[in-house]
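The passage that follows is intended for readers who have already worked through the single-chain material. We present the inputs for a multi-component assembly, then the predicted structure in tokenized form, and finally a short commentary. You are encouraged to pause after the input and sketch how you expect the pieces to fit together before reading on.
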Amino acid sequence: MTSKKNWLSVPYLFWSGLFIIVPLGMVVYYGLTDRTGAFTLENITAIASAGHAKALRLSLLLSLISTVICFLLAYPLAMILAQVQVRRHNFIILIFILPMWMNFLLRTLAWQTLLEKNGVINHVLTFLHLPTLKIINTPAAIILGMVYNFLPFMILPLYNALAKIDPNVINAAHDLGAGHIHTFFRIILPLSIPGIISGITMVFIPALTTFVISSLLGGGKILLIGDVIDLEFTKTSNWHLGSGLSMVLMIFILVNMVLSAIFDKDGEGSML
Amino acid sequence: MRKNKKSFGKITFALAVSFTAVSLCGCASSDKGVNGQVIVYNWGEYIDPETIRMFEEETGIKVIYDEFETNESMYPKVESGAVAYDIACPSDYMISRMIENGMLSEINYNNMPNAKENIGEQYYEQSCGFDPENKYAIPYCWGTVGILYNKTMVDEPITRWEQLWDKKYADNILMQDSVRDAFMVAEKRNGDSMNTLDLTELTAAKNLLIEQKPLVQAYVVDQVRDKMIGGEAAIGVIYSGEAIYTQKENPDLVYVIPEEGTNIWIDAWVILKNAPNKENAEKFIDFMCRADIALMNFDYITYSTPNVAARELIEDESIKNSEIAFPDLSQYENLETYVYLGEDGDSLYNELWKEVKAH
Amino acid sequence: MKNAAKKIYIALIVLFLYAPIGTLMVLSFNASKTRAKWGGFSLQWYIALFQNEEILRALFNTLVIALVSSLFATVIGTIACIAMTGMKRQAKSILMGITNIPMLNADIVTGVSLMLLYISLGIRFGMGTILLSHITFNIPYVILSVMPRMKQLNPSTFEAALDLGSSPLNAFFKVVFPDLLPGILSGFLMAFTMSLDDFIITHFTKGVGVDTLSTKIYTEIKKGIKPEMYALSSLIFVIVLTLLILINLSPDKKEKELRYGGKNEKK
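Having made your guess, compare it with the prediction:
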């Protein structure tokens, strides 16, 4: 509003400098040095080694599939929800946030219980004389875990974007003779782009970097790039390599930031 | 809209505040004990909490207790000095690494009569492998790594690591999800040392593990326990300490030490060089070596105790003479203890392990 | 017909989201200690829960951290939003980019980088370091939900208040703040939820002896979760759900008709 407010930015500038920029700088420092402290690019080029490259490709593939599934599931849902009475707005949001109040690890572990060979779902299937499900410890289980954990992050921004669309605009389109499909592609979809962008970001990035889901539902047989980074930091304590690989992942975040800036010109995320 | 949103806010606030308020009751503050404190860094679920309470009561020393999951995650935390721990409980090879890097302080046995008396001589001898003069470490738990199998799910007794490569057990095998333990299995199968740094031997082990991967249901750590109890898999690689517990829950399970030999490990108490409360640390370790306390811990965590006096106190003869808890080691060949491989050796193993996992 | 299909679709998604939670609730009544076996119905874990001081303390820590960190994050985030409206476009988008970093960065990187920071600054690990970290990753959620509100604000109302002799602070709280409130509150809720659910960052920045529910569960997961944890989670969940339903049952119809009457009937 007025330039008088400049001093107001001081606390946050200070905070983000100290707790976001400086720590990132330390990751970069670790990533660009070896154990002796000498400069090296090895930790970054290590991404090209057979194991790492494969893990990265698999991570990209699985998170891409999960993002697409989340989008396809969430968009129709958000459209339906957007038509519900506004009075219920908060209730709807809470319904989808509520599962997060139960610990993420416990929820993922519960999927293990459901999907296992002798798990709940297979008991039910056997009871119904149906063939049993064999997806635990496969990429499919990981995708399921990703979709499950990140779906709310797709639903909420889409819902918010769609709920904001003035129904009169849609009515006007109908009045002017546009069919349902036409209206959808020409009006609804373009107007919901900010929501789509932030939904995709909120699903794709965490899915790309996760390691908990793959280790709990993948049986440790599927190595994602997040698993590698976790391994380097917690198991083999090679922080230099871990930092170097994290820097590679940050490239995807940068790409994402640029994309958001292009599509979401006002710089407004619409998480809620 | 605004008012509507306000009710939304009320929900939030009501939830947050009421929860905090509810939990505020019944939580005691954690002040220092009358005789100071001691900071202990141990494996998760590796002590009977009751023994800590008893120690605090008897000595007036407040115990601050922290847990780690792997030796490798413990090491940098101790090294960084972010928290000034007094005591840690690492495994053999990690202790030799810590000795090498001058992170430990020497033990004064005169202040620790229980440690001197109650821990069996053979265990001190065994720990010479990583602590040559017994200057730094007091054994706390030990055990072997072996095979746990469900006798209703296999048609022959399992006695060898080799059988983990048998195609008929496809999707029924649980492997350990840690570099050294996984490679140990393959190396022992090949008749090599589990501390080898020979590239041909290591490549052979790696190829074996890759060959085995399609047969493996999952690479897990402690979940072997739950999965074997539930009959999820027929065969699992497991630590002997877990085996006793699993058998209690599921009598169909059998634990064997494979013929090709295996890892025999020791986790031991060490006092850190920069320990701020050395005296209290000595008291704590000595207390844990008291026969009755060691027995309580054995009952709770079911890992074999090197405390001979405590073993004498076990009432259940079947456990006291259990081949799982207290195997007669002279009967087995090719038992080895991990040694620290150095940073380059470690990264070599890790590199190969990642190739296995990513395959 | 079409409506029924819509309802079924919603129901399926909700079922998908709540199936694991149902599973956990069932497990909390399992008399057997392991997840793998059903040992009959029992309330023993609920009783054990209230005698388990460690879990209760972890719960206490979790809630204090969530509450305090989301309050701080809300204040800092809101001020940042106000400040950003006065900035040049370029500066603003750079700052927004920075804001996004903790949210988009892999948790493990955020956690480790903060840990490195605390070590190099010589800050003692403990409750304080967890709080600092949680505030850091909570701020973006606040900013992202306050920012859109900020844009809908009409700056002239603030100036009008000033012209009418109101002090800037007074004008802010009387004119701007009420309009921002919904965004602030939803940001607070989001921050609170995120803080509750986080474990990786907490894991790396926590001090000795300070545990939250998540870090407790994380250690337990390797050794087999203690069923008390299922009991606790089920309790939290049921309490939240009940509160949610109760509050939602008290309708404010009048307002709805006032502003949105007719809008929804058209669809």
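Commentary: The longest helix of chain B spans residues 2-24. The longest strand of chain B covers residues 137-150. How closely did your sketch match?
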